[in-house]
Every structure is written in structure tokens, then in C-alpha cells.
Amino acid sequence: MVEAEGGIRKAEFGNKEGKLPMAERSRYQQRIIKNYYQNRDDIMLQRLGEMVTDLYLAEGKARERLWKRVAASLEKVGLSAARIEHVVKSDSPSLLASLVKELLDRK
Fold it and tell me: What is the pTM of this model?
């Protein structure tokens, strides 16, 4: 126990920085993480497809937030910044849908 300000005693956990040490991952956990990163592009493309549907239905601020998420997902897929900007500025879900189809066809 360590005494803190005001005479309150606090339990001392972890290392000097107060952080808990990381436990080692099991082989099962390592495999899950490895599979996630191997399939990351496919996961992003699936999310983009779902966002196309959401964009058709969204209005106002919700639509703006969705376009920000779309831009972030397109960056993770590796699309050029100029192309991302063009798609986002167009505010056209159909253009995004055709782009997602094009990216899926590349796979």
C-alpha cells in the first residue's frame, strides 16, 4: 500500500509506471491475431460494402460521419489520397459502390 495525497492509501499495482505487465499470448490468441491481419483487406472491403448501404439511408451529420469512416477504411485498403478525396467529395454512394466492386474484383 502506498500513501497518496490527503492520507488516502492506494494499492500499488504493476511496474513503476503503474501499468500492468502484459501476459503472454496463448498460441490460440496468436493465431487469431495472425488471421485478422491476413484477412484485414477483406474485412475492410466488407465494412465498406456495409457503409455503402448505410450511406444510402443516412442524412445530415450521420452521413458526414459515415464519409469520414469511409475515408479511413479506404486509406487502410491502400487507395491513393487523391482517389479517396474524389470519392468523398462526390458524396455519391453509387460511386463508392462501384469502387468497392472494383476492389473486390481485384482480389
Answer: 0.69
